[in-house]
Structures are given as structure tokens and as C-alpha cells.
Amino acid sequence: MINKKETLETIHMIDNEHLDIRTITMGISLLDCADENAEKSCEKIYDKISKRAENLVATGEHIEKELGIPIINKRISVTPISLVAAASNAKSYLCYAKALDKAAKNVGVNFIGGFSALVHKGFTKADRILIDSIPEALSQTDIVCSSVNVGSTKAGINMDAVKLMGETIKKTAELTKSTDGFGCAKLVVFCNAVEDNPFMAGAFHGVGESECVINVGVSGPGVVKHALEKVKGADFGVVAETVKKTAFKVTRMGQLVAMEASKRLGVPFGIVDLSLAPTPAVGDSVAYILEEMGLEKCGTHGTTAALALLNDAVKKGGVFASSYVGGLSGAFIPVSEDAGMIEAAKCGALSLDKLEAMTCVCSVGLDMIVVPGDTSSSTISAIIADEAAIGMINSKTTAVRLIPAPGKKVGDVVEFGGLLGTGPVMAVNSASSDEFVARGGRIPAPIHSLRN
Amino acid sequence: MKKAIISVIGKDKVGIIYGVTKILSENNVNVLDISQTIMQDLFTMMMIVDIENAKGDMGFLSDTLSKEGEALGVDIRIQLESIFESMHRI
């Protein structure tokens, strides 16, 4: 039987250490919504999402109440729209984004992901139309998220796509100038994108997935930080063990919620993503965990090693706790969404270069970083290329979510509000990458892609 | 049987157990186990209850108990046992 100490530990984690389920994400295939007539296709999309997800929010709230654990977000991911819209005669896919936005609002979720294209090897006609539509789509909808996969370990890096995405990010920032380029916070450029990621803005429902699926993303940086406070000064073996045990407990909670949601909605369970996802709330920060390991400020020397240990221990603890682990699973390091990262960036301890090094060992990439508004599109493309190279060579997912905030300079601070937080504008290298980016073509897949 | 755990944490005063059990009795919730202590100056009570035949659903019980908690100046919550089981037992 459960004893009082264990009960209180769980309650304490929820009340004081921000333990929560970050998201229940329903993946919905829209492949059967393709139609030559774009208008008709959009109607099918609206109807399918509205029907499939009609009980998602209410079910999530029920589970929340019964288990007494907050479930912060209920979200939807869909088949990359470039695949669904390819059959249509549309010249712009803005109407598809609007249909997604309307359907998502209708069922009450707070984000819908999948205005996406997978172009790691090349573009179809539809991929190009989709990417061209991104700036307008993100400025004219509220909760649609977009992602583009520009590289993979198997295919190499599509440098034409990298160039195009630098320009697309700039255009999106320009069109959402009144909100400091907020549109870019809903746009992720991936290398090795995963098909079952429940976290936004990069979630989409891959073509290898079933008709409809429930994926759950857990969280819990505050819980890990608190656990480490109790082992101050202990060696790294103890630190890793402590993180593992904590990750196990957090993930078990995610597994339970995933199974419950799947049962109640009559939708198969996909995966639990055991990521440490920070929020701007004090005490819910990944940076604070790294600092708890003995670093004065996140970003100083030793940060990459600390993050490597953390990311690995989270996976090891979590993998035993869930029957199916997937998504991105590790530690996220979004700057604007993490109180400790924000502080570190403001005081100059954390630079873009250090963040790039950290992405070699964290679960994703350069996330929610505000750069000066006059950063050129080729510099943004070059940052994407660097990040994609790290992903391609290390067979891991990497991503770039940069916000070139119009009119902002290094030292300014941009407020996004809510879970997206506050972004101090960070410096980029001022030397040009124009000619590098202008080459275009494809960077070949690395030698270790030839495994067959 | 459908087990849930009720936890009451707060400053000790007269009538806490009465306040909680009155609601349980009114809603046909059976108490299976009850324990209480004073931990770090806080009144801490844990009850294991069976809500199989309860009148209201968990949402209703949870709202009613937390309202009673506000009146008594303590935190009262009810959670399905499965959350503790999954977190602390393999």
C-alpha cells in the first residue's frame, strides 16, 4: 500500500516543484482529406479535426481532476500539409492554415502543428507552395504551428531549403512586426525531424503513423532541480542516479496519463516523450538544474558536460518507466521559455555559440532565441546549416527556432508572454556567410549513413 | 472497488475530520483507511476511500472537498490511487 511519505512527495512535486503533464497531443492523419479542389479539401480537414478531437480537451480536464495532476496543454498534430495539399490546384496554402486554425479553435486546443513540409532531399511543387505560404499563414492565423525538415542523416542537408528558410523566417518576422516577430515563434526548421513529437511548435503527424494517436509530453525541471538540492556536493555518479530516479517517477506519471487518455478517447497510445521542458516560471528551469550541479551561471565552462549528463540520465530513467518512448525525449533549452536561461543571456554568461555547443548534447536545438532585427537572411540560413550539420553528423534531431525581432538590437528584451516567455536579444556573428549560403545544392549524407 | 486517496494538509483545528467525513458520508464514499499525524507543525491526514458507489463523480467530490477545505483553512484534495501507485511502485 502507498504510504504517507510517498503521497506527500507526489503532492509536493505537483504543488511546489511544478510537476505537470506538459501536453496531450492528438495526432490525426489528414491524408484522406486530399482533394483537387482546395476549398473542399479544407472543409474535409475542418470536419475531420472537429470530429476526431471533439472530446480531447474535456477528457484531458477530466483526467486532470481525477488524478490531481495539471495537464497544461491539449494539442493536435496533423499530417504535413504539403502532402495533403499536393493534390489540389491551389497556388497558396493559406486557406489550409486557416482551416487548421478554425478547427483547432473549435475543439478548444491551444496549438495545432503540421503546417509542414519534409524537404531534406528535395522539393515537390507542393513543398515550395507551402514554404512560400508560411509567412502569411503564421501572420494570419493564431495557433497554427509550422515546421520544415531540411536535412537528415540519411539524406544530407538540402542547402536550397536552408537558404529558403532563412528568407522565410525574415519574411515571417516582417509580417508579424507588430508583435516583435512573434510568427517566428511558431516556426521550426528541423534536421532529423521525428514523426511523433508531441511538443510545439515542431509537432506533426508523420506518414508512418496510424489514423489517430495519443502522444504525451511530460515535464518536470523543477522536480529534478529539487532532487539535486538534496545531494549538494555529491559526485557525478550520485547526480546521475538522482536524475534517473526522478525522471522515472515523472515519466510514470506521463505513461499513466497517456494510457488513461488513450482508453477514454478510444484512440491508440503512441508514445511518451520524456522531455524536461522548462517554462518561464521561476523554479521550472533547465538552466537552474545545470547551475545546481555547480555552475555559477548557465553558459559558463562546464555547461555542455552538465547538460550531457542531464540529457542522458533523463533518458535512462524515463525509458524504463514507459512502454513506448519517442518524440524528442531529453532536455529542451529554449532560451525565452526558461527563467535561468533568460538571466544567463541577459548577464552575458550565455552566448549563441555556447548554445550551439549545448545542442550537440541536448534533445533538440537552438530554440526560442531572439536575434537582432537586422540579422540577414543568409546569416540565419548559415545558423540553420550549422545546426542541421550537428544533427546530421550526430544522428540526432536538431532544430532552429530563431526570432529576428524587427527593430530590436542586442541588449533589448522582447516579451512574448505566456509559456513563450521573454527573449533577450542575443548577438550573432557579424562576418558574412552570403557566398556560402548562395552556393545552394545539397550537402551529401555522411559516411555513417551507409549502414545497410 | 475504486480507490482514491484524500489528503488533508494544514493548520490543526477542531472539526477537520468531521468536516471531511460528513461530505464523504453524504456522497456515499466508504473510508477504508485513515491516518493522521502532525508533521512540521502541520496537520497531515491521509484517507484511503472507495468511490465505486459514490454519488457524484470525481470532479464533484474534488470541488466539494476543496470548498470544505477553504472553510476549514486546510488543503483538501482527492486523487485516484493510480497516480501514487504508478509513481512509486514498479
Short description:
The complex is a heterodimer of chains A (452) and B (90). Chain A is of the alpha/beta class and 452 residues long. Chain A has helices at 4-16, 38-52, 56-67, 81-85, 94-107, 125-140, 159-175, 221-229, 236-265, 286-292, 303-319, 339-346, 352-358, 377-394, 434-438; strands spanning 21-28, 71-78, 111-118, 144-152, 156-158, 187-191, 212-218, 269-273, 366-372, 398-405, 413-415, 422-424, 442-443.
Rg of chain A, nearest Å? 21 Å
Can you identify the CATH superfamily of chain B?
Answer: ACT domain
> Which whole number gives the mean pLDDT of chain B?
92
Largest sheet of chain A: 11 strands, mixed
How many beta-strand elements of chain A? 13
Largest sheet entry of chain B: 4 strands, antiparallel
Overview of this structure, please?
- The complex is a heterodimer of chains A (452) and B (90).
- Chain A is an alpha/beta fold.
- Chain A folds into two domains: 22-191, Anaerobic Ribonucleotide-triphosphate Reductase Large Chain (Alpha-Beta Barrel); 218-449, Anaerobic Ribonucleotide-triphosphate Reductase Large Chain.
- Chain A has helices spanning 4-16, 38-52, 56-67, 81-85, 94-107, 125-140, 159-175, 221-229, 236-265, 286-292, 303-319, 339-346, 352-358, 377-394, 434-438; strands at 21-28, 71-78, 111-118, 144-152, 156-158, 187-191, 212-218, 269-273, 366-372, 398-405, 413-415, 422-424, 442-443.
- In chain A, strands 1, 2, 3, 4, 5, 6, 7, 8, 9, 10 and 13 form an eleven-stranded mixed beta sheet that branches. Chain A has a two-stranded antiparallel sheet with strand order 11-12.
- In chain A, β3, α6 and β4 form a beta-alpha-beta unit.
- The longest helix of chain A has 30 residues, at 236-265.
- In chain A, 61% of the residues are buried.
- The mean pLDDT of chain A is 95.
- With 90 residues, chain B is of the alpha+beta class.
- Chain B has a single domain, classed as Alpha-Beta Plaits (2-Layer Sandwich), CATH 3.30.70.260.
- Chain B has helices at 16-26, 58-72, 81-88; strands at residues 3-10, 30-39, 42-50, 74-80.
- A four-stranded antiparallel beta sheet of chain B has the order 2-3-1-4.
- In chain B, α1 runs antiparallel to α2.
- The interface between A and B is medium-sized, with 20 and 26 residues.
